[in-house]
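FW: tagging you since you asked about this chain on Friday. Here's the raw sequence from the shared folder, copied in full. Didn't touch anything.
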Amino acid sequence: MEQLHGLSEMGDCIKADNNLRAPNISTQAIHADDHLHSGDDVAPAMHVSTNFNYSKDPTELVTAKDQHLGTLDRHVYSRETAPNTTRLEAILSSLLHGHAITYSSGLSAVHAAYIYLNPKRVAIGGGYHGCHGVLNIHTKLTGLKQLPLDCDAEELHEGDVIHLESPLNPTGEAYNIAAYAEKAHSRGAYLFVDSTFGPPGLQDPFLQGADVVMHSGTKYLGGHSDMLCGVLAVQKKEWHRGLLDERTHLGNVLGSFEGWLGVRSLRTLELRVQRQSKSASALVAWLDGLLHPEAARSSASADAASSSGNSKIVRDVVERVAHASLQHKDKEWLEKQMPYGYGPVFAIWMNSESFAKTLPSKLQYFHHATSLGGVESLIEWRAMSDSTVEMTLVRVSVGVENWEDLRDDLMNGFKALNK
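HL: got it, structure written out here
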């Protein structure tokens, strides 16, 4: 039998055939788990069992002291491995270009990473408040020291971590991953990248020097607002083995149903995220064009700027907008880091708290809800779930709807606020 863990060899198999080129991400998402498929089903079956039969051949029985999760050739107990989660990890390993381990949530993955790395110092900036909460727990338990993201390199020591989120929650702005990798490695430290807002199909942090890549799989990997999931990916085999062993005892394993949902979701990952990202960039260009008609940079913003009436309506209620696509001075490194799109999330600062609180209720196609990454567009008065942000900020997560329909919906919402 195939080993249950480890990088998928699917890409190498295709390369070996001179008639086929290396597979695109969309092909990997559909075929990277083929080696784990059994039976005649086209769609993966759902396995609900928590335990599995040992071999009936006594000569194949291996005692616990001689086993390792990274080399198991059959399932034993679902807290260790199970068919659906194993398939999900095989696909993720191919897409992320590292050994992927799944967890019960994004924060459980962050927690597991810091338990394994056990750094004495972590440099971290803004971003998801939940990650800061995890680090606060580690500070309480171990005395972990938290440093500013842009601390002097000399403050970092061997085994420490730079925790970088890019693109950033909630603004969708990007950081130069390669620059932070260079800083970390110059001191023998590691770079941990939360790439939730830059899923496969948009960004590969390992190409920029990351040591650990984390995703809240609840978001774009799941993509349908119906599963909790966390993912860590590493390229060092010994780290992979260590994380697997510790996951068994932490007990933060992904459920089989969530594993099944994850496989279903990854099949359409590239289709979803690239469309969502393209739509977000178009909406941002339109908004920015209305806010700054004198500096229109694209056809979308130029078209927006041509409507002076709409420009005044928007400027009366919107202060500014943020998104990686607006980081014009960073294009040199940003286009290398995110060659296929700048992410589907952006932030809008309204001119008053009242406008921020009211705008979601004036929209038809945006759900007013937290989280992001689903096929449906979301807007959130971010103060509802994050106590650290300005009261005037709304976060927008663009779905797969037609972007012009979303544009018109936002415009109608801005007009309603002006009445």
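FW: The first strand starts at residue 99 and ends at 103.
HL: agreed, and Residues 269-291 form the longest helix (23 residues).
FW: great, closing this out.
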